Amino acid sequence: MKVAVSGFKGRMGHEVVKTILKEEGLELIAVLDHKPKEKNICEIAEFSTVDVPVYSDLATMLEESKPDCVVDFTTPKVGYNNTKTIIEHGVRAVVGTTGFQAEQIAELRKMAEAKKIGAVIAPNFAVGAVLMMQFAQKAAKYFPNVEIIELHHDNKLDAPSGTAVKTAEMMAEVRDYVKQGAEEEVELIEGARGGEFEGMRIHSVRLPGLVAHQEVIFGAEGQGLTLRHDSYDRVSFMSGVALAVRKTKELETLIYGLENILD
User: Fold this and answer.
1) Residues with catalytic function
2) What function is annotated for this protein (predicted)?
3) Residues flagged as binding site for NAD(+)
4) Which residues are annotated as a binding site for (S)-2,3,4,5-tetrahydrodipicolinate?
């Protein structure tokens, strides 16, 4: 498969480039950055032996390089428009950019189905994180009192994380609604109780040194249950990215969430 990477200078995009270069059956043919200094990726010391053009415009890259699939790890500000442009050009998409609204995902799914091409949008590509989300969904049926604490590096632009939102959405599917906390609870500092989703609370931590971590904490009378996943290195996401790229060949729709393509 001929693969292009959008957002290749970001930390996730950088790992994706390295992964595509070493994965059997995948060929890196183009990369994209919004303000590149390079014309070819070989101008970067780490990739000095690689001959791959660098683009600054997504449509131009799609038209000239003609990839089979584009992997997009950019920013929430441009993620939706990028995905729309990729699908409009009849190209498969694997998207790790977060911040999509439900109506945007629905619209992109209709576009993918009209073009009969596969696409995968996933808030998290680490298999361990996906399992944590599935375990949380199972537990929420029996433990409706639950809070999420997600912890990321201090350069992350969106809060809460896409993983936290997806986890909450999955739990809401099976969880009896419970508005948590005392009925007359008062926040002495605004935001101290975190954001609310279907009665659940989500807390976002941003600190240097972190990568991507999440705890789902359940409480019940006389007992508690804590689920936690830690990504210590961005390489933890790469097996899921490679899996998604290959999976798009078999799809004619858009899939939201890596858990939906795991065997």
Assistant:
1) 152, 156
2) Catalyzes the conversion of 4-hydroxy-tetrahydrodipicolinate (HTPA) to tetrahydrodipicolinate.
3) 7-12, 96-98, 122-125
4) 153, 162-163
